[in-house]
Amino acid sequence: MSNVRQQDIAEHGEVIPAVYHSPPLLKFLGELAKESIIPNPWEYEKFIINRQEKTGDTHGWHWGDYPYSMIWIIQAPDMSCGGLLECIPHTYWDKKELMIQEHVLQNPISTRAHIAGDIYVLKSDTTLHRVTPLVKDATRIIVNMAWEREMDRDRAVTHETFAFRD
Amino acid sequence: MNKTHEQETKEPIGFDGKLNKAFSDINTQIQQHIDKTFCNTNNIRWMAESLLKDGYLKISNIVPDSVKRVFHEDVRSLLSQFAKRRDIHIEVYW
Lengths: 166, 94
Ligand SMILES: [Fe+2]
What we know:
heterodimer; A: 166 residues; alpha+beta; Jelly Rolls; 4 helices; 31% strand; B: 94 residues; mainly alpha; two-stranded antiparallel ribbon; 50% helix; 10% strand; binds fe (ii) ion
């Protein structure tokens, strides 16, 4: 999996940082979330570009460090290639005891395929999710953005899933 | 969760809307689009409930096509200049 880091996007990108910080977008997301949301206080985890390209590239099961994510599908292979989103909502992340397999066994899993141009919002801190491995070499490109709750602006966050962004 | 990934040594860069040439225009476009597209508060209510219920909401028209187009161009340009394969080794669940 290749990526473009926050630092490079912030320094050399223009549209991505502008959209991420856009007050009308944040206000509307707050209406959908029923709470005020703010740009992530930790710069590194504001946005990232990820490109899965080789067989086996995956984002394994995880929860998000931050409550709200928006994923922009830039390019997606045919669903027969893998790279599908699987979600288990209303699950809670006990960092001392993850119990991923138990969560997967105990709950229904929603699976979704996407096409280029799709955008979705994920309640990522309480939705266990993964992107299924590519089963053949194919290209899947996404942008992941993450926001914080305004009321949690000063909370301490351990960046467990910094590397896992989808 | 144990993980190792490449040390990210470069300091992050914050955001200043006054220095971003696209910021003002993008805000105007998004505001006008949202006012026009999501003016029905009943629809917003059902979308909010969907997000609450499913933890997921597909909302591909949250920005106008004009913004989506330049957004995708930004991604392609950044990928061509800065993409790097960073293989992440992490405890695997399957
Ligand atoms: Fe994620």
